[in-house]
Amino acid sequence: MTDRSKDVVFSSRVRFARNITSLPFPDKLTGEEGIYSVLMRGVEKALAPLGEFRMYRMNGLDHTEAQSLVERHLISPALVGSRYGAVMISALQDLSVMINEEDHIRAQCIVSGFDLAGAFKRLVEADKAMAAQLDFAFDEKYGYLTACPTNMGAGMRASFMVFLPGLALSGSLGSVLNTLPKFGVTARGVYGEGSGAQGFMYQISNQAMIGAGEEEILGRVTKVAESFIRAERAAREELARRGGVDLKDKIMRAYGVLTNACKISSEEFMELIAYVKLGICLEYIAADADKADELITLTQPAMLCKAAGKKLNAEERDITRARIVQKALAR
Amino acid sequence: MTDRSKDVVFSSRVRFARNITSLPFPDKLTGEEGIYSVLMRGVEKALAPLGEFRMYRMNGLDHTEAQSLVERHLISPALVGSRYGAVMISALQDLSVMINEEDHIRAQCIVSGFDLAGAFKRLVEADKAMAAQLDFAFDEKYGYLTACPTNMGAGMRASFMVFLPGLALSGSLGSVLNTLPKFGVTARGVYGEGSGAQGFMYQISNQAMIGAGEEEILGRVTKVAESFIRAERAAREELARRGGVDLKDKIMRAYGVLTNACKISSEEFMELIAYVKLGICLEYIAADADKADELITLTQPAMLCKAAGKKLNAEERDITRARIVQKALAR
Fold first, then answer.
1. Beta strands in chain B (DSSP E)
2. A219 Cα distance to chain centroid
3. How confident is residue A1, by pLDDT bands cut at 50, 70 and 90?
4. Closest Cα partner for B168 from B177, B160, B159?
5. Which helix (H) or strand (E) holds A201?
6. Are the CB atoms for B129 and B47 separated by under 8 Å?
């Protein structure tokens, strides 16, 4: 469980925002001006040596397919249905380069567990390759120029997704989250701004840090992640010691329902899988932790439709979700 | 499942009320007058040839032990702590003879499944043996004389315990129960008069039938049982056909909780085991039906204390109950 601190950190992500000097910002685009000839071909050419990639043009993409990219955190919800939007995604699904989201280029690397340094390294490689092909808007004084001034400078955001049942159940999560702004970071739900926290999962990322360098942002967010890992582990130990039979009962019931239910809603699943994940961490349950983590993505609505190969109504999704969950958690 | 219709009828019971001419009715007893010399020795002597029996004197009996007899339906709650009460119980726990309950003698035979005729036959055997030893109060015109006039005549009650999830869940149970008085029978909860129905279980017995003979009572109750068996099976078939995934989901969740919970209250257990028993009947669950039935007795409070060999508080009982249930239902 300590491999890249996966018991606490679900995933680590770094993204860069970049723009091209010769093009108006995406929200000013009125035609297909230069999109293909400059942006898309440039990105394609730059990434080709880095491995296998696939390009999706958003305006030609089926809604389910687009949603499933959002659910896998490969694109932002804002890109869905966008007229000039596109995305290049690596075969390993670690690298994704959104085209014409808020900025011309939003490149991100996402890896499982706690490895911001690794994600950063791989992203820098892609960024250098793109910089060699495209004329990035960069100012000696302000750094990378971005559509929104708060992103100017490094144009970088580092974030990680944490699983905090220990802090949440011990009642200390609220005060911990309240101290985050002091450290220049902010907490959100799993699916970005405005989405509520589900299943004790939080996305922590740096706030706007105009003028801060890449290393500074990375160092700051890494430090916060490390303190979350320490605090959460301590809280779990305490919880296991004091929670006694009530906590174990709650965990085992959640496991019993997830491994037997014939239909389950997304909300109930998220609540129960959180307890099951905690149970795996506390060694009450001998299920595969990685499989439990994967379920959070695999049971999202569009992913379920993709798995079934057809549109599913709400009840069909609940039934398909239950089947997938049961299979993944079976002893 | 059709062996003695155990899928619907949990148990069958027949009891006789008898009194001794030479003794005042139990509620008039003021001393130990004749209890041992006449009643107890007479009963002991009569039953000895019928197999192994054990005598419990209520005033010397530990409360947990006494309650565990109530929970196994071997004595009535009224006998617990009674000063002149006693009970003789066969080693097989099918025959029990209460002494100085409402009447001098309340003899019953209880068997699992639907077998009123078998229970009656074994009870008659015991009754004859006792009649040969004791001077039963019998009147040519009124039949057996009893403390309460409603029992006069045959002094007999025939009853059976039914499991009616099909009728209950299809919404037709209420109207079925309402017609019972017309057939001279009445429905109560599992633990007799005043106890609520738990887990779709009902005890059906003949109402007072002054002047009716043994065969008539037996015939009438048997007929009611047979119609319950037919109606309940039809309701279950219909339920399985129409209930679809919602019913199966409810059943499988109940199974999931019962096989994983670390503590469980009596009320929740009764609700969930009913669904699990239904699931076994509908072949959704491959657990042992007899074991599921036994659990209803084994998880009663005093039975749990007996199993643990010590007094248990409410939480300890809930934990012990969960452990016993989990073991019995494990695949």
1. 9-18, 53-57, 86-90, 95-99, 105-112, 138-139, 143-144, 156-163, 185-188, 201-206
2. 19
3. very low
4. B177
5. strand A201-206
6. yes
Radius of gyration from C-alpha coordinates of chain A: 21
Would you mind telling me the total number of residues written for chain B in this entry?
Answer: 331
Proportion of chain B in helix, strand, coil states, percent, rounded to 5: 50, 20, 30
ipTM: 0.87
- Among all chains, which residue has been given the structure tokens 């919880």? A239
Averaged confidence pLDDT in chain A: 91
CA pair distance B319, A265, nearest whole angstrom: 29
Mutate: best of A247, A248, A249, A282, partner B, most B CBs <10 A: A249
What is the reported pLDDT for B34?
Answer: 62
The vertex-A223 CA angle with A222 and A225, nearest 5°, equals 65
Classified as helix, coil or strand, A100 is coil
pLDDT band at B1 (very low <50, low <70, confident <90, very high): very low
Question: If you count them, how many residues does chain A have?
Answer: 331
CA B48 vs CA A12, B1, B13, B91: distances in Å: 79, 35, 22, 12
Mutate to test the interface with B, among A257, A275, A321 (most CBs of B within 10 A): A257
First to last CA, chain B: 18
Coil, strand or helix at A187: strand
A291 exposure class (CB count in 10 Å sphere: 0-12, 13-18, 19+): middle
CB A218 within 8 A of CB A14: yes
Tell me if chain B has a CB within 8 Å of the CB of A322.
yes
**Where are the strands (E) in A59-155, listed by range?**
86-90, 95-99, 105-112, 138-139, 143-144
Distance (Å) from the alpha carbon of B246 to chain A's nearest alpha carbon: 8
pLDDT at A313 over 50: yes
Q: How far is CA B209 from CA A249, B102, B192, in A?
A: 50, 18, 19
DSSP A16: E
**Chain A residue nearest residue B264, CA to CA:** A249
What is the Rg, in whole angstroms, of the alpha carbon atoms belonging to chain B?
Answer: 21
Cα A236 to Cα A276, A282, B283, distances in angstroms:
14, 8, 40
pLDDT of residue A36: 66
| DSSP structural state of residue A189 | B
Question: Is pLDDT at A110 greater than 50 in this prediction?
Answer: yes
User: Residue A87 is encoded by which pair of tokens?
Assistant: 């995305």
